[in-house]
Amino acid sequence: MIDFLDRIDERALFENLLNREKAVFAIVYGRRRIGKSALLRNVIGSKGIYFLSDLTEKSLQIKNLASAIATLIPDFDSVNYPNWEVLFIALENSLKEKITLVLDEFPYLLQGSSELASIIQKIIDLGKKSKYNLIICGSSQQMMRELFLGTTSPLYGRADAIFNLKAMKIFWLKEYLNCSAIEAVKEYATWGGVPRYWELRKNYLNLEEALKYIVFDKNGILLEEPMRLFLDDMRSAAQAYSIVNLVGNGNHRITEIANKLEKPTTSLSRPLANLIEMGYLKKELPFGEPEKDSKKGLYWIADPFMNFYMQFIAANRSIIELGLWDVIKKQLDVKLPHLYANVWEELVRNSIPYLRLANTDWSKAYRYWGKPDKKIEIEIDVLAESIDKKSLLIAEVKWSNNVNLYEINKSIEDKLQILGTAGSYTNIYRAIFIMDKSKFTPPQEVYLLDCVDVVGILK
Known about the structure:
With 459 residues, the protein is of the alpha/beta class. It has helices spanning 8-18, 36-44, 58-70, 84-94, 106-112, 116-125, 141-149, 170-177, 181-191, 195-201, 207-214, 225-233, 237-248, 254-261, 269-277, 304-313, 317-322, 325-355, 405-419, 451-457; strands spanning 25-29, 48-52, 99-104, 132-138, 161-164, 281-284, 298-301, 366-370, 378-385, 391-397, 427-433, 446-449. The chain has three domains: 8-164, P-loop containing nucleotide triphosphate hydrolases (Rossmann fold, 3-Layer(aba) Sandwich), CATH 3.40.50.300; 171-340, Arc Repressor Mutant, subunit A; 343-457, Trna Endonuclease, Chain: A, domain 1.
C-alpha cells in the first residue's frame, strides 16, 4: 500500500466541510487510480463508513452496505432491508452522533438501482438535520459529471461540494521514490502523477526493470491501461483511443487528426473537448494568441503515462507479444532522451508562476512558435508576462549539462529581437534551465535554474 502523500489542500477542504454543524452532501470524481479512495479513507478515519460498490445484484449490494455499516453500528446487518430507502432510514435512526458515509464507485450502484439517485435526492431535500454526511465517489468521469451537471439528474444542484481530484505533482514522486531531482523527471515522464503507478514502480529496483515487467511484458499489469480508462470514461472508447494514439504519434493539429481518421474536422470538436475535460488531452496555444476561436492550437496528451504508452507501447504490441525486450530497449535508449526533454520543458513552464524569478509574480508560461516578422520562424521554450503585465520573462530549456550558457543567452537575445515585443514591457528578464547548475556560472543578468529548483517548487 502506498504511503499517503500530499493532498494537503484537499484534506483541509474536507475537514472544514465535514465538521460543519449540518450534514453535507459531497461528490468526488476523477480518473481511475488517481487516489480518490485512499483520500476518502484517510479523511473519514474511524468515524466513518467506507463502502466500495461492485457490479453485484441490488439485493447483495444492500446486504453488503449493511455489513459495512455494522462495523460502526453493531448488529446493523442482522436485519434484512428490502430496499435502499428502508436501509437509509434505519441508518438515520440508529445513529447517536454524526458520521460520514462514503459510497465509492457510485455508478456501479446505479447500474442495478436506477432509483437510487432519486432516493438520495429525497434524503437531501428533507433537510440538513440528518445525522450523517454523505459522499459519493466514482471513476467514471462522464457518468459522475452527468449526475451533478445534467439538468435532468435528481442530484443536479444539490451538492455542497464537488471535488475533481487531479494528478499529484512531481515533488511527491521524488519523495516517494527517494530519488534525485533529475531521476524524478525521468520517472515522472514515465508514470506521471498517478499514485497507483508509483506504487507499482516501487516494487522494482530501477526504472528500466519496472518498465520491462509492468508495461513491456505481455502480462504486464498496465499493458491494457488506456483502453480500460476509456471504457470507464467515454461512450466511444475506440474513437478516444484512436484520437489519443494519433496525437501521441505526432498529429497535433485537428486537420491532421481528421485526415488520419477520414472524418470532417467539425465532427471532432466534441470528442476532443471531452478528452480535454477528462484530462487526457490538452490544447496548446502560442504565447500571445487569444484562446477563443484560435486556429493555431496544437493538441498534446496531457497525462505523461498515456503519452509514454502511445509513443512506446502501442507501437510495439507485436514485439511485446514476442517477448523481445532487447529490441524494445534499443528503441528506448534512442528515443527516451527526447521524451525527457519535452516533459522537462513542460515542467519548467508549469513552475514559472511559483518560482517568482526577479521577485516578480508571473502569469502562466507559454511556448511560442511562428514568424513574428513574417520572415524568420522561431521557437521560444518559455514566455511569460508578469501579473501586472509590465515585465516579460523569456527562457530556454535544455535537457543537458553539455551546454554553452553564453551561446544560449545570445540565442535568447536574437529571438527577442525577432519577436519584436520587448518595447511593450518595462522589464525584460532572461533565464536558462538545465539539468544541474552546480558547476556553471551564468552570464550577467541571466537566471540559471535546474531540476532541483523546478522539482522542489512543484508540490
